[in-house]
Amino acid sequence: MKIAYITPGSGGTFYCQNCYRDDELLTSLLRLGHDVLKIPMYLPSNMGGTGGIQKSPVFYGAINVYLREKLPFYRQAPGWMEKIFDSQTLLQIAAKKSGSTRASGLEDMTMSMLQGEKGHQAEELEHLVRHLRDEVKPDVIHLSNALLLGLARRLKQETSATIVCSLQDENEWVDLMEEDYQQRAWDLMARRGEDVDLFITSSRYYADRCRETLRIPAEKLDIIPGGINCQGYEPSPLPFDPPAVGYMCRMSEYFGLGILFEAWMRLRKESRFRDVKLHLTGGYTGDDKKFVNGLLRRAEEENMHNDIRIWKDFSKPQRIQFLKSLTLLSVPVPEGEAFGAYQYEALAAGVPVVQPNVGCYPEFIEATGGGVLFEPNTPERLAEEMAVLLDDPDRVRGMAAAGRKVVLERFCIQDTALHITESYRKVIEQGKSRTGDGGRQ
User: N or C: which end of the chain has fewer CB within 10 A?
Assistant: First the structure.
């Protein structure tokens, strides 16, 4: 089966859990014998094009997309100018700039992208359509998230491919748009979703949410548990003298770093927890820098800064080493998430998780037994829950062993790839039945 996987690049400036998972999924699909092409959008992915995965040039280069939206005269720019702005060097610089990976201020561009052939980036869409139709000729075109649904209609019209779309935390973009745009964006995604043959998501929580917001018929939505590449993770020794609590995600207020930081400071003010360390990794964007620096200044004012360690390298080998330094991990995203790769990685390394009772976290902890839930999602409650666990090392070790066993048995990316392949085949066969066309094998 020939699979073209279209996914936004993050530029590699922060821990993009969906980017890492997508790459591991493509590697697993390749090992199952499929022909896999990765097509990065907007920014370079910096994760892929190795191990046999083919990677195309970046489509919809972020600089050109932005200029077409903001400067009407640029829509007639000559091809040589577009190539300059699509260079790897300039796109890497753009990835590091404030605002390059946030919705606020880019609402009109988001709406234009969702309008597809009717938007200001229609010319870029036709470049992508011609590339897939004339050169790639895929059996499946897989959009990595619903914000790419503006591509679906033209791809469906011009190729014979089955169109599949993953649903993974689109709300993290839409919720940060100005309020007037939010419902319009969901409505436009719902209309554009009519051109998709199958949606896939990783949790019951997000499936239920998307059935409502995107008006997806039940028969067009598969729930396939997420997974990670479980190779290489070794169990943490779970230090208690002193203990260390950790955070592994983009270092941002949006993802709950401030909640964990405040909880850690509260812990430290209790005499028995005065030595608890705080370990952080995941990188951050220019938009997050002021927030992160503010936390570090507060720690210095409280004379706690020497007990914070920031791991700047968040490649997989370094994430494994990071996790081995932890006793507990918490990423208290206020609204929860659809997947949360960090919790899978933590349990693969035998580190229990302490998560708010929102999003996908309850079903993950129920499935693995590798952590605890708390509510409401406040620093006070998080500090209380972490204190209870740090006072009970045997319980922590028991959760660690149980969670690690379940993740290694049930949540490896190879199983995810098998289930997704089955879904591809099912929807392809359904399409053949409807059209009476034998199609490609």
Answer: C
47-74 as b/e, with b when 16 or more CB fall inside 10 Å? bbeeeebebbebbbbbbbbbbbbeeeeb
User: What pLDDT sits at residue 32?
Assistant: 95
Whether residue 251 sits in one domain with residue 381 = yes
98 DSSP 8-state letter: T
The C-alpha angle 215, 218, 220, rounded to 5 degrees, equals: 85
pLDDT of residue 182: 94
Instruction: Write the single-letter amino acid at 322.
Output: F
Q: How far apart are CA 81 and CA 64, in angstroms?
A: 9
For residues 39 and 56, is the Cβ–Cβ distance under 8 A?
yes
Residues 6+ apart with CB under 8 A from 10: 16, 19, 43, 45, 46, 95, 101
What is the tens place of the pLDDT at every residue in 66-75? 566 665 655 5
371 and 424 co-located in one domain: no
What lies within 8 Å, CB to CB, of 72 at 6+ separation is none
Residue 382 maps to a domain: yes
For residue 101, what are the contacts with CB-CB under 8 A and spacing of at least 6? 10, 11, 13, 14, 43, 95, 285, 287
Under-50 pLDDT residues of the chain = 47-50, 91, 98-100, 439-441
pLDDT digits (tens, 9 = 90+) for 89-137: 554 555 555 444 556 668 988 999 999 999 988 888 999 999 999 999 9
Provide the whole-model pTM. Answer: 0.88
What range defines the domain where residue 264 resides? 244-410
Contact in structure between 79 and 61 (CB atoms under 8 Å): no
3-class DSSP state of 228? strand
How large is the angle between the packed helices 393-410 and 341-348, nearest 10 degrees? 110
Question: Among 243, 269, 248, which Cα is nearest to 379's?
Answer: 269
Q: What is the CATH number of the domain that holds 132?
A: 3.40.50.2000
Burial class (CB in 10 A: 0-12, 13-18, 19+), 266: middle
